[in-house]
Amino acid sequence: MYQITNYNSGETVGYTEKPRYIKKNSSGIYVETDEEHAQGIAYKSIPYNLAHREGVGVDTTVILFQYDTGDVVIDQQKNNAVIGGQRAERRYEPGELITVDGELYRVKLPILVGSFITPGTNVEETDIASELSKLNLGGN
Fold this sequence. Notes:
Layout: E1 2-6, E2 12-16, E3 20-24, E4 30-32, E5 40-43, E6 46-50, E7 61-66, H1 69-78, E8 97-100, E9 103-107, E10 123-126, H2 128-134
Parallel strand pairs: 6-7
Antiparallel strand pairs: 1-2, 1-7, 3-4, 3-5, 5-6, 8-9, 9-10
């Protein structure tokens, strides 16, 4: 399954099992294409630019996140879905540390503004001692 996410706002546009990749032909008409040649996607008959591609000349750019649906469901059940319904207030990159409800987490996957912070999916629990041990401080 793919999550279609607005690249700028982080809002989820929708979900699809198979993206409909598109490009503009020489006449300016949207035509389906393969992923390699795609400039964008069509979702519910609406064209979107694909992030880091030439784009199809529309205002909205999206990014696709591919998920194994079974793994997502299992992770959410195992971790009680999300941390207290916490949504990201800003974009987080892999490797960043965040605290939620007094617990420390390391970001595993990019988290866009408004996306849920989900243990086992996009963050993993950690602690100060573990993070300090990762630093090569040297010392006496």
